Amino acid sequence: MTRLSRVAFIGNSLPRRCGIATFTNDLQRAIAAAFPDLKTQIVAMNDRGHSYDYPPVVGFEVNDDKTDDYIRAAAFLNAGQFDVACLQHEFGIYGDEAGKRIMALLGPLTMPVVTTLHTILAEPTPLQRGVMDRIIASSAKLVVMAEKGRELLREVYQAPAEKIELIPHGIPDVAYVEPDQAKIKFGFGGKAVILTFGLLSPNKGVEVMIDAMPSVLKRCPEAVYVVLGATHPNLVRDHGEVYRESLIERVRALGVEDHVVFLDQFVDQSTLLEFIAMCDVYVTPYLNEAQMTSGTLAYSFGLGKAVVSTPYWHARELLADGRGLLVPFGDAGATGDAVAGLLTDDARREAMRKRAYSSSRSMTWERTAERYVEVFNSARKADRPKIVLLPERSAIEREAQPQPEMQLSHFLSMCDDTGLFQHAVHNVPDRLHGYCVDDNARALLLACALNAPGEQRLPEALSSRFAAFVQHAWNPDTKMFRNFMSFDRRWLEDRGSEDSHGRTLWCLGECARSDASPSRRRWAAALFMEALPTVVSFRSPRAWGFALLGLEAYCAVAERNPTAIRIQSVLADRLMSLMSLTETDDWVWFEDGLAYDNARLSQALIVTGRSTGAPSYVKAGLRSLRWLMTIQTTPEGLFRPVGSDSFGDRRKPPKAFDQQPLEAAATISACLAAWRAEGKSEWKADAARAFAWFLGRNDLSAPLVDVDTGSCRDGLHPDRPNENRGGESVVSYLLSLAEIRQLARINGDRIKPAPLLPCPPKLAEISQTSRGRFVTSQISQPAGAVSTP
């Protein structure tokens, strides 16, 4: 690969007044300073016909309402032979509704795109979601500035984990100084200065701090609140200075006009740093939790200021562990108490300042520039290796192959005394990203699968550890499971996604049926029923599918529970309704697009139909799975899972990459469920072909697994395997291996499809006594069933 020599930045640029413009220029300058031989240019966005006196670094201007400008910008970048384009994305700066015109620029580009996402919405509109999905698909890398961003990209947008990079907002590298000299320069000598800066707009919550000033002044009479910043240009354009005037009137009404100063200025960086230097306490009283990034917060924090903030996403992460104070949204009383407490306690304020300054040294613009260049290099296109297809063998030959042994050494290395780590760097567990209930639920599923005949069980302590993680994830206040936990065992949210809740229900249902411990089976059944009703309010089809898989397992061993039976019917009927609304002759699916874990939807209907005696469910599941398998099979007969680059496409053939182990595992389970329902050998052949994908029968002829350690790479890029081997991937492989090994132990010629049973035989009945304890009683078993110890 040639050396990185030319990088283009796409976004707003100074002297346009906005945070994205400031960030774009700061990042460009930092990279130019750190890498003098690297040529950088900016493609700048002009808003609604405005023009700006740009510096020479701006090589092309785009009027945000003119699609032709976007197309010409792409031609400019292609002609300039830039190695990477770095897009700064924020809704509202690329014209049109949801900024969809940006795709006219991204689509024709011949270089990889690295996108910095300044806003990531947890609940986007359909149009915003469509734009985000296309940007994610068009980007080689996605940069976020907070862990919450990574979480939303994975859970809401199903972005591939390997695309996401966390690079904190950059900060100037300046010395730690006391505020006295700067106070004197600006005329605030002898005052206790509280500061808020940034473009003024209603979402900043300045009125909350104004309302807090009377209580602050009672404890600190010399306090003054400085509000630095021009009114946001869009607000001025649409409403003039009505908002600023309302704040001034509010100050007068409270009688604090001698202690609140408005500085209507948009200052350059050196002046801004002096203003920050003079403050004793910096306040960000934002009113909206969904603030992914705040440059004003990052700068004040990086200069070693004591910060009081509302708990929006960026602040919650940056100010954790005593690095700042968080107060409730819109609470003037709590804000005043926090600010006054810091102003009147010099030792506490100084300790907080030093914690902030010392912990921010990794955020300097120089370090940020280095990390961006690393990401640029990793995003660049490399020559794709020549694909050599292995000769095709018959399904019988493939099924006759000896299966790999169950090797657990990598899986065990990915576990500690908390649970299973989410990610790995190559095969080294990555502590930085902690844990999630998704992966620990999958690990508990694996523990249950290894109770099958011929397999070696996991150590009891490890199974108990996964169960404990799931139990701890349960939040009885929200009636949902939390998902993400940091390495230091702090939950990063009050509730996880709908899909993570559904997946945990699946794990609990299976645990209630097949865990080795009777006590843990009773625990799983009880928690399953406590968490089940929440799923009725969900809108995610995958959450419904996961829950149905759990219900099939739970209902196989529990007494007929009216609530479970009712919810099982509701969720299955919802999937049937989706399919009836969406299905056409050439699109036999539940949604207009394909995403992740696709085959689980088909599997859920198949197993639900068999367990409830509903042939229509089984037929719909088989029909959708047959269609899915036709588009997941190459002309050469290889299994090709739906690539993550397809996510967001509507009724289009799936893209080939990136391919992920999760899809192969889901397909194997679904095909074996179909085989049990129909008894046709084609389903076993499909399962075997999907499993062979792990071993190297794929588009790159590249093995995903190391059979000696049981590790599994995180997927296939267009040019190479992803060498990281995280928790999701290893469990996906091991679960698939367990299923394939069980299949190899069965003589398929003597197995007939089981009849549909309105009330299936149970291995155990779980009933609750009047005193609330659970009693397990063994009853009749079907022929060939294996008793659970």
Automatic annotation (TrEMBL):
Residues 189-357 form the Glycosyl transferase family domain. Residues 769-789 are annotated as: Disordered. The keyword Translocase does not apply. Keywords: Transferase. One of its GO terms (molecular function) is glycosyltransferase activity. InterPro entries: 6-hairpin_glycosidase_sf, Glyco_trans_1. This is Glycosyl transferase group 1. It comes from Methylocella silvestris (strain DSM 15510 / CIP 108128 / LMG 27833 / NCIMB 13906 / BL2).
